[in-house]
Amino acid sequence: MKRIIKSIGALALGAIVIATSSLSVMASDNSYTYNYDYWGDVQDSPDAYTVNNVYTATSFGLDMNFKSPQGMFVKGNMVYICDTGNNRIVQLERTGTEQFEVVRIIDSIKGNTDVKNLSGPTDIAVSDEGDIFISDNGNARIVKVDSDLNYLLQFNLPVDSTVSAESTFQPSKIVIDTAGRVYCIATTINQGLCKYEPDGTFSGFVGATPVTFDWVDYIWKKFATQEQRVRMASFVPTAYDNIYMDHEGFIYACAGGMDEDDLDSGAADAIRKLNLMGNDILVQNGEYPVYGDLYWGKGGGYEGPSYFTDVTVFDNDIYVCLDKNRGRLFGYDDQGKTVFCFGGNGNMDGYFRQPVAIEHMGHDLLVLDSLDCSVTLFTPTEFGELIYDAIEEFDAGNYEASGESWQKVMELDGNYDLAYIGIGRSLLRQKKYGEAMDYFELKYDDENYSKAYKQYRKEWVEDHIVIIVIVILAAFLIPLSIGRIKKIKHEIDTADIFET
Amino acid sequence: MAVALGKKFNFQEYIKSLKFALYCITHPLDGFWDLTHEKRGTYAAANTILFLTLLIRVLKLRYTSFIFLTVYWEGINIFLYIASVAFPLAMFVVGNWGLTTLFDGKGRLGQVYMASCYALTPYPLIQFPLMIFSNFVTVDEAEFYSVISVISLVWAALLMIAAMGQIHEFGMGKNLLFMVASLFAMLVIVFILLLFFSMISQGVAYFISLAKEIMFRL
Q1: How many CA atoms, within 13 angstroms, populate the side-chain half-sphere of residue A341?
Q2: Quick check: pTM over 0.90?
């Protein structure tokens, strides 16, 4: 009895130890760049990006410092920085790897308009023809000017029954498509993105986030009085924080701050990829949803879930999300799998205080910090370039080259799940099913494993069809013939002839 | 519950009683009646079935295809994993016996244990071939696996109910009532155990701190 109690006690103690140890917060301060593996464990990784330089207004050669800059836009070699607090836009040209030169400072426009000075520009977009669209927040308009800043037309408050005509138009972020249509996020408008035709007329809202509410809230609301209802949070779609138009014309939208419960239950979409109809078509095949850090433990200057404030999309469909709350950058591939995570809150190079905008230039990344008034230029390391190489080669159909690149990635980082799956996919395309299966099994990729296994099984059956048929026939015929022989023997034994 | 208490171990009888498990799972009412009333079951066979169940459960971790079961090996404690079956079973046996013995249940503690173990038979019987089968399927065919797996569990659960009814000579309604009551009895046992251990640890902590205090003062 004593021994039983002892062993049960040891068991219970073990259970308590295990239960408490899983509560301890995972510290991920070991390396600058990290990744999440299949289990959601943080895996340190070699740096995918390194800080090339951090620029302030002075290092660009400007006499006035930036003041809470809000927006940034890249077109070719040109970088436009919306210096919102100083009512100007700074246009820079990248002349070398680390060299930026000021082209001009846009603080007023010319031509046929009463209001010529910009007031708190929050975003800018430039079309292929060179026309410039400026979200002129303080003047309640989006203004379109040609490349010499001559006024062409302006976009005003949407004319719609759901929008009060007295309210001020506060456009914050804009994107333009190839046809010259303008999509804009405006503060106080939460019906989605305001869409304008090229001629300046408002043509409707697109891509509103679906309204979610839970049953408890709904029932409470049924019983609440009028005054209580006013004070309760209303079921309205959350307004977008930022938008980006990718090279194919899809709009990537950041839905802003997310409720922790919504993130946990998977109800929240931190990033949405909108098609022309305004539907979300973002692929989320990763083990974890696209919402940044998986653990929101408080400590070390971090608290709460990631808050995506901007996103940029490379031509290889990898998109990088900028996390305002945790100061990090999260790269995802077109399947929604994490490619890299790096950054953090802080004052050192490569860390941020209040990042607001991210843009890419080739494979380089530019991040604008509005509190630090600085622009950080990241360039990919050998590791990062190998990942891009592998993905781009695969998309181009060069599966063998892609496999080789992934092999090099794996040699640099053996804990990098995508490398194994990448090698597997490359082998799969080369019809080396058995080897591919090994790689998929290592990283628990059941979909791809099944694809490979199906082919492997088919090949195996085709190769061994003769043996299989023989075995099946044997399985039927041997018992059958044994039965027949026994029967004959029995008949002989009991035959009348032998009875004499 | 040592193997064949006192008596000399009879291998023939053991094999026979083990084979009787197959009769039990196909003819539960008749089988479980004979199990105790006709003394056709043995503890040795019951122990074997329980051991096989635990063994298959552990083997499954390693040999089931990762499509159906991905194992976080860092988080596996083999003893806890075994206890996750053995401990609830022990609690069920004790809880069920404790309750039924107060309400005209005819089964003794050992018989309840034996019948429970016999009722587990479908688990090793189905899960072992299923484990091998899992390595030859793709995700598209995963439905087969989960359906058969569920069948093995439901079957075992139904057998458990049938077994308890026959052992205690209960009618259907009373039997079901006591199955549910047994679950509550298990909860009570867990509660008392927790209370017990937390009390003990508090007491131990008290004396440790007392000793420490004295050591500091000296």
Answers
A1: 26
A2: no
What tokens appear for B143 in the block? 């439905």
**A83 domain residue, yes or no:** yes
Residue A152 and residue A166 in one domain: yes
Does A312 lie in the same domain as A425? no
- CB of B87 within 8 Å of a chain A CB? The answer is yes
- Regarding whether A398 and A257 lie in a shared domain, the answer is no
Q: Which of residues 5-64 of B touch A (CB under 8 A)?
A: none
Q: Per residue in A5-31, pLDDT tens?
A: 555 555 554 554 444 444 444 444 568
pLDDT at A232: 64
**Residues A328-361: pLDDT tens digits?**
999 999 999 999 999 999 999 999 999 999 999 9
Q: Is residue A14 part of a domain?
A: no
Say whether both A361 and A422 belong to one domain.
no
Number of helices (H) and strands (E) in chain B: give both, helices first: 8, 0
Q: How many domains does chain A have?
A: 3
ipTM over 0.90: no
Model confidence pLDDT, tens digit, residues A286-298: 889 898 888 888 8
Residues spanned by the domain of A494: 471-498
- Residues A485 and A409 placed together within one structural domain of the fold: no
Q: Sheet holding A141-145: strands in order across?
A: A121-126, A132-136, A141-145, A151-155
Q: Do B80 and A9 touch (CB under 8 A)?
A: no
Considering only the beta carbons, identify the residue of B79, B140, B197 that sits closest to A450.
Answer: B140
CB pairs under 8 A between A and B: 38
- Chain B residue with CA closest to A18: the answer is B75
A22 within domain boundaries: no
Distances (CA, A) of A16 to A23, B80, B100: 11, 12, 32
